[in-house]
Amino acid sequence: MTPTPIETIEAAAMQLPKADRIHLAERLLASLEEDDEIQTAWIAEAERRADALDSGTTQAIAIEDAMAQLRGSLQH
């Protein structure tokens, strides 16, 4: 049975010295993290929404009501 590419890469990585494996793991994990620009935009949006709730310019609604509104809009 021929090993899959990921099995081949994993086997090769496991042969690396510990420091190199740590470096590789850090790089792989970093490649999975969200783009800083996107994360910054989401934080800004969350803060904007929290400020709107705090100032009373918007009101929160129950998830049940939000889902009912969504379902209603999808049926039209």
UniProtKB/TrEMBL annotation:
Protein name stated in the entry: Putative addiction module component, TIGR02574 family
